[in-house]
Amino acid sequence: MNLLKDPFISTTKGKISLKQLLTSEQDYQLQYYFDETQLAMLQLLPSLTTVVLKPNLEDLERYLTHGLSEQEYDQCLIKVDTQWFEGGCFMQSPMPQGVKVADGPITKLVSGIECGSSANALGLFSEVEHVDVVCPDCIHVLNYNLHMNIKGECFGPTGATGIRGGGSISTLVSRPSLKETVFANTIAIDEFIKETHLTEEAEQSFMWQKPPQGEIYYAHTIGLERGLFALAYHINFPIEEKDCVCGVCGAVSDQSVTTFQRVKYTGSYGSTKNGRDGKAGWWLFPYTPISVKEDGVYPICARDQNWQSWQELSSYVVGKEVNKALIEPAYIVRQFRKMIPINRTSLLIGGNIADQGSIVGRVYDLYAMPESLSRDNSKITKVIDAGLEEKEKLSLALNKIFGIGYDKNFVSGIKEQAIQSFICNAQQIIQQILQDVDRKEAKLLRADAILRLTQVSHRIFSDVQRKYQYDLPLFRALVKGESQLNRSSSFKEG
Ligand SMILES: [Zn+2]
Q: Distance between CA 287 and CA 57 in Å, rounded?
């Protein structure tokens, strides 16, 4: 199987090849059981497309508007050294001699499957038997996911941190069809070179062709295609001649993969502390929003299990200055802004929240974006700000319960729970409100957001009051908080 030639992409209409996906008029839908595999495919496919088409911004715009013909794909493919995309070779750098090899069940490459001792790996899919065997097509997306999205710490001392940093958030441009989504996340070579100032000296070969050397992996020495598939492990997937039903895509296969072996690379990327200290520099991974601080660049990660992505949506789209750091949208969002808008776009935000492979700690959120990302940014900011302001008001109102001499942990628990409930409810509301982002004026969108979010914060506050109505000191404090909440809201309930 060759990833640039053969069908390995699982869709609702069966397995298709990259060429079929990019050149057909059919609208394919990816078919993978786990949203994290889906997300990894949405990163892997545009990266492969970048290797085949090597487009500039103008080409990409043309592909998005007019599509790509089979002949065009074939012509581009002639220039690619496709041997590196063979199934037994792609992203698998051979193990060095005489090192200790770590191995594990294939299940470990899917988050949320409990096969370690981590208390956090709970969830819907928490059954090892659900993913104890996969087909050889799916090892590539699992391998890619390991290198790009899974935190090295999940594997303890044998885990490595890749070029993007561990467990960083991904933002991708989502279009009405899978084909358009892949084009929209393909890298325009001219734009990328302009932003990164990559020079001739940057190494172009893939890491499984020529693994990086030395203790520090300097960003400026890593060429675009090398970086898009940068490795952090030597890896091997032993293939058994045995039938299976794949636990990742559901396909029937006459070959099975149940384990993988790995040895981590010993050098450090600029995404790690070692790398930053060694002045490795940040390699501009296209799907990672970053925080630029005085001492270096950090990938944006989700904070904790209760975190919801809407709170940082403005910074993923527009960028934002927060204390001593500048949050910058991922390269792919900035690249997309330079293209001529044609129709609706959404932003997909995904990743792992918790340190452990927890399914409850996953993000996979879709937000409707204005047709022109560059013109209407204030619309998004206004909606998000409304949410953050309301959260602050609720927080201030709840602070009244700290003054009554109760145990601090007890009262902060009450507050924390109420705030979490708000953040969680606001997620859906903001997603719904942004559905109208092209149809409504910024002022109206904001008014809508304020109205609905205020209703939520008032409802949550009333719930807390009801719960503690017989605890007089608490209740009195909450009454004070309530009048403060009412005063600060432009909307009054009832
Ligand atoms: Zn499969």
A: 17
The span from the first CA to the last CA of the chain, in angstroms, equals 64
User: From CA 381, how far away is CA 311, in angstroms rounded?
Assistant: 10
- For residues 221 and 333, state if they share a domain: yes
The per-residue pLDDT for range 385-409, each reduced to its tens digit, is 999 999 999 999 999 999 899 999 9
pLDDT, tens digit (0-9, with 9 covering 90-100), for 200-256: 889 999 999 999 999 999 999 999 999 999 999 999 999 999 999 999 999 999 999
- Measured distance CA(186)–CA(190) in Å, rounded: 12
- Which neighbouring-strand residues pair with 86? 2
Boundary (domain end) residue, out of 316, 349, 368:
368
Q: How many domains does the chain have?
A: 2
Q: Tell me, in angstroms, the distance from the centre of ligand 1 to residue 112's CA.
A: 18
CA of 257 to the centre of ligand 1 (A): 10
The rounded radius of gyration (Å) of the Cα atoms in the chain is: 24
- Both tokens of 45, joined, read 């496919």
Q: Which of 301, 333, 368 is the last residue of a domain?
A: 368
Q: Does 177 lie in the same domain as 303? A: yes
Q: How far is the CA of 364 from the centre of ligand 1 (A)?
A: 21
User: Could you tell me the distance, in angstroms and rounded to a whole number, from the CA of residue 373 to the centre of ligand 1?
Assistant: 36
Same-domain status, 276 and 424 = no
Strand partners, 240: 256
Cβ(157)–Cβ(150) under 8 Å? no
